[in-house]
Amino acid sequence: MSNLLALSGVNTHIGHYHILQGVDFVVPQGGLTMLLGRNGAGKTTCLRTIMGLWKASAGCIDFDGADIVGRSTPAVAQLGIGYVPESMGIFAGLTVRENLTLAARAGPIDQGRLDWMFGLFPALKKFWQLPAGLLSGGQKQMLAIARAMIEPRKLLLVDEPTKGLAPAIIGHMVDAFRELKRTDTTILLVEQNFNFARALGDTVAVMDSGRIVHSGNMSELAQDAALQQRLLGLSLDAHQ
Amino acid sequence: MSQAKDALPVARLDKIPLALIPVIAAAALPLIPSLPTWVTLTVAGLAMGMMIFIMASGLTLVFGLMDVMNFAHGAFITVGAFVATSVLLPLAGWTHADSLWRNLAALLLAILASMAVTGALGVAFERVIIKPVYGQHLKQILITMGGLIVAEQLIIAIWGPDMIALPKPVTLRGSFIYGDIAIEKYRVLAVLVGLAVFAAMFLVLNRTRVGLLIRAGVEDSEMVESLGYRIRRVFIGVFAAGSALAGLGGVMWALYQETVTSAMGMQVMILIFIVIIIGGLGSVGGCFIGSLLVGLVANYAGFLAPKVALGSNILLMVLILLWRPQGLYPVAKR
Question: Is B49 a member of any domain?
Answer without folding.
Answer: no
